[in-house]
Specification:
Helix 5 links the parallel strand 5 and strand 6. The protein starts with 7 loop residues before the first strand and ends in a 10-residue tail after the last strand. It has seven helices and seven strands. Strands 3-2-1-4-5-6-7 form a seven-stranded parallel sheet, sandwiched between helices. The protein has a single domain, classed as NAD(P)-binding Rossmann-like Domain (Rossmann fold). The chain is globular. The chain is an alpha/beta fold. This is 3alpha(Or 20beta)-hydroxysteroid dehydrogenase. Belongs to the short-chain dehydrogenases/reductases (SDR) family. One of its GO terms (molecular function) is oxidoreductase activity.
Length: 247
């Protein structure tokens, strides 16, 4: 089991779904978790569940540069460092290409793409001083295997996938690792509230959908020294969904 004792980790979108479970799991492994959420009251609620000695609630709208700067500064003032960034927050809009508006597409870019970009820029100067850091981008299998009626979403995820690889090349010499996790169909509020049929498992070789803890465990691995030589790595967590057909 990964050892994250006293590692300081910022998780975005930590108030629900995968982000909430990731935050709790990392804290259980010894990390100090900065719980990032747009609504500070929700961040405070999750922090209380984790334990105030193990977490710090931070208000963070990932589409706002000022929020990033204030959140990271708060973490540095509290813990004197930031070891890991988990870019988890994201937006899913499922519409046909012709029904997707310019506003829809721009919103997806702002959250899924620019949010990750600004996060990397916000933590990198601090990690560079430490000559060590881990950035984990929670992407999607849609970055390489798009689902129907989600072209704009897939495009933003593909952009993050390539941004992550480029960042891994550029930041590696500074001691900063950048890796990605690609979840498949995971039982979350976001998935349930979309029109995805999370109970249709016939196309998944393992014949089951994933759970948020499946993503949390992979995230913990990439945050820890157990993955010290992983940089630019992509870990697919989809039960074999994107392997092809078993017919």
């Amino acid at each position: 089991m990964p050892n994250l004792q006293d590692q300081v980790i910022l998780v975005t979108g930590a108030n629900r779904g995968q982000g909430k479970i990731i935050s709790k799991h990392l804290a259980s492994l010894g990390a100090k978790v900065a719980v990032g959420a747009r609504d500070i009251e929700k961040a405070e609620a999750i922090s209380a569940e984790i334990g105030k000695d193990k977490s710090l609630p931070v208000q963070l709208d990932i589409t706002r540069k000022d929020d990033w700067e204030i959140a990271v500064q708060s973490i540095i003032q509290t813990y004197n460092k930031v070891d890991v960034l988990v870019n988890n927050a994201g937006l899913f809009i499922r519409k046909s290409l012709l029904n997707t508006t310019v506003e829809d597409y721009q919103q997806l870019i702002n959250v899924n793409q620019m949010g990750v970009f600004m996060g990397i820029k916000a933590v990198t100067p601090h990690m560079e001083k430490q000559q060590k850091g881990s950035i984990i981008n929670n992407v999607s299998i849609s970055s390489f295997a798009p689902i129907n009626h989600a072209a704009a979403y897939a495009a933003t995820k593909a952009a993050v996938s390539n941004l992550s690889k480029s960042a891994a090349i550029e930041l590696g010499p500074k001691g900063i690792r950048v890796n990605t996790v690609h979840p498949g169909i995971i039982q979350t509020e976001m998935a349930t509230n979309s029109d995805l049929d999370v109970n249709d498992v016939d196309s998944i070789p393992l014949r089951k959908t994933g759970q948020s803890n499946d993503i949390a465990q992979v995230t913990a691995f990439l945050a820890s020294e157990e993955s010290a030589y992983c940089n630019g790595t992509e870990i697919v967590v989809d039960g074999g969904l994107t392997l092809g057909t078993d017919v």
